[in-house]
Amino acid sequence: MARILIVDDEVHVVGALRRLLRREGFSIEVALNGQEAIEKLATFEADVVISDFRMRGMNGLELLGQVLRIAPRAARILISGHADLSGGSESGVISHFISKPWDDDRLVADVRALLGGQGQQGPATSGP
């Protein structure tokens, strides 16, 4: 089962993404800021990290730059309604960009494409 770390300082966004991706059969962890995400990556080997761009403290581009260094195999998705990519995609920091509001089917398809089809075992049966 593919493992995804969702990082956003808006609890309702984290909840919506968690519900969507769990329903698709992925193992999910969440973090509410960049520092918490870095700490989670010490024990959670993420296949994908989905991060909001605008967060208090460390922004998503800065976080994904650190993810590239500490978990280079993880796909790095930046999600935002108003991002300034500042060269992130050109430098290889960002694997993929998704605009808010996102389309659920498209987001799932993009995640699956980045994973090469992993996580297609069907809906998860574990708790929240």
Description:
With about 130 residues, the protein is of the alpha/beta class. The chain has one domain: Response regulator (Rossmann fold, 3-Layer(aba) Sandwich). Helices cover about 35% and strands about 20% of the residues. It is built from four helices and five strands; from the N terminus they run E-H-E-H-E-H-E-E-H. Strands 2-1-3-4-5 form a five-stranded parallel β-sheet, with helices on both faces. Helix 2 packs parallel to helix 3. It is globular, with a radius of gyration of 13 Å. The two termini are about 15 Å apart. The C terminus is likely disordered. It holds the Pfam family Response_reg. InterPro entries: Bact_response_regulator, CheY-like_superfamily, Sig_transdc_resp-reg_receiver. This is Response regulator receiver domain-containing protein.
Task: Please summarize what this structure is.
Pfam families: Response_reg. This is Response regulator receiver domain-containing protein. Helices cover 34% and strands 20% of the residues.
List keywords for this structure.
128 residues, five-stranded parallel sheet, 5 strands, Bact_response_regulator, Response regulator receiver domain-containing protein, Sig_transdc_resp-reg_receiver
List the helices and strands and how they pair.
Layout: E1 3-7, H1 11-23, E2 27-31, H2 34-41, E3 48-52, H3 60-70, E4 75-80, E5 96-99, H4 104-115
Parallel strand pairs: 1-2, 1-3, 3-4, 4-5
Helix pairs in contact: 2-3
Determine Rg (CA atoms, Å). 13 Å
The tally of structural domains comes to 1
Look at the structure and name the CATH superfamily: Response regulator
CATH architecture type? 3-Layer(aba) Sandwich
| Side-by-side strand order of the widest sheet | 2-1-3-4-5
Overall CATH class: Alpha Beta
Distance between the first and last residues' Cα: 16 Å
User: Count of helices?
Assistant: 4
In percent, how much strand structure appears in the residues?
Answer: 15-25%
Helix-strand pattern: EHEHEHEEH
Fraction of residues in helix: 25-40%
Number of strands: 5
Low confidence ranges: 119-128
Biggest pleated sheet: 5 strands, parallel
